[in-house]
Design brief:
- This protein is mainly alpha-helical and 213 residues long.
- It has one domain.
- It contains nine helices and no strands.
- Helix 1 packs antiparallel against helix 5 and helix 5 packs across helix 8.
- The radius of gyration is 16 Å and the shape is globular.
Length: 213
């Protein structure tokens, strides 16, 4: 269930993937500070951080391991990039939250922050997916649900994100119009990132390819 490590290119890939994680963490923090609503997982993680009394980044790490456990139970294949994702994105989120001030009551600034964060997340996704070191824990869970239930990837992702944002909203997370804007624009943003960096969706992202490995 673990993809082999390409040791000859490991350190180069590690540096590249960290750039992607840094941009990804910065994007999530920017959405949080824009106070218009965040991605589904951030809604839940911010809510839990307030309840438990720890940072959102720490919750992201803990949630990543919990989601990974679910993926492993469903026998999904992971790679070193999956573990790097769990351990890296959370600290980048906390660092970015420390650097970025919270903005409220200023839509002329909040809207560009939200849209810029979504664009940055698409770029970041293309960077770390392009390394092909294993899907992130949340994507791994999506693929595992797709493989075990037979539903489409779109349906699997929708099931996960609707459930997550509903729980997060009930717990007091920052759901808002920005959450809907994110849901609509994140797909085109990732696609644009793929095109810009000439990243092609690779076989490990397809459930059928994972089954055949």
């Amino acid at each position: 269930m673990f993809k082999p490590i390409r040791w000859k290119t490991f350190w180069k890939e590690f540096l590249i993937i960290q750039v992607g994680f840094a941009i990804f963490g910065f994007a999530i923090a920017t959405m949080i500070r824009a106070n218009l609503g965040t991605s589904a997982w951030a809604v839940l993680e911010v809510a839990l951080s307030k309840i438990i009394g720890i940072t959102p980044g720490t919750v992201t790490v803990l949630m990543g391991f919990l989601v990974l456990l679910g993926s492993l139970i469903l026998r999904e294949k992971i790679g070193w990039g999956t573990l790097a994702n769990i351990l890296s994105v959370g600290p980048w989120i906390d660092l970015s939250l420390w650097l970025i001030p919270s903005v409220q009551g200023n839509l002329l600034l909040q809207i560009p922050m939200l849209l810029g964060a979504i664009a940055a997340m698409g770029l970041a996704s293309a960077i770390y997916i392009g390394v092909d070191a294993g899907a992130g824990p949340r994507d791994s869970l999506m693929l595992a649900i797709r493989r075990t239930t037979g539903v489409s990837i779109r349906v699997a992702r929708a099931i996960i994100e609707v459930t997550v944002v509903a729980i997060g909203w009930l717990l007091g997370g920052p759901a808002g119009i920005g959450t809907l804007v994110f849901a609509v624009l994140i797909g085109p943003s990732v696609q644009a990132g793929f095109k810009l960096l000439k990243v092609e969706p690779h076989k490990p992202l397809e459930p059928e390819a994972l089954v055949e490995d």
